[in-house]
Sequence to fold (214 residues):
Amino acid sequence: MKPEAITVTDLNKYIKNKVDNDEYLNNVLVKGEISNFKNHYTGHLYFTLKDDNSLIKCIMFKSYTQTLKFVPKDGTKVVVFGTVAVYERDGVYQIYCKAMQQEGIGDLYKKYEELKNNLEKEGLFEQKYKKKIPFMPKVIGVLTSQTGAVIRDIINVSTRRNPNVYIRLLPVPVQGEGAGEKIADAIRFMNEKNLADVLIIGRGRRITRRFMAI
Fold:
């Protein structure tokens, strides 16, 4: 008997019901570091909670933010209490936070600040190393994971703003051991072959975007 295909909506509903009926996921304590923090005009808080290897989207509705005893921001290490649920329309799961406690400046943010300070001391941020980014590049080179969601964002935004732009993707690993060296090799390759007017290095979705003029 040939299996009958279901709709995307049916699948998302099925997954949502599974998650909703999981008692453990209804009350979870999760620790991590805040990134992509946004204090919406409605009073709701939107952010990503991450560690060295993973991330998860979070939302804290205005009714729960009244109990906060600190001002959340990127780089803050926190413990959140809430419920994991599926946002059925987009087929994504996230934490709906009911409480959040500060743990201090996140380890990842500390590492970022240390790296930035070291690069500044080496003079790598000096003006002489900076190149002007073309206003309307004809070819944009994108270095990112071939299956990453960020490539879709880059294509959508770039082509919307400049319909005549050509996107050239060079797949590279953007996390894990050896990723830095492979990204550097890819940048050198794109530069030596003059394959793009500007390069974008993307990791994750709305996480890291870097622009480098050739």
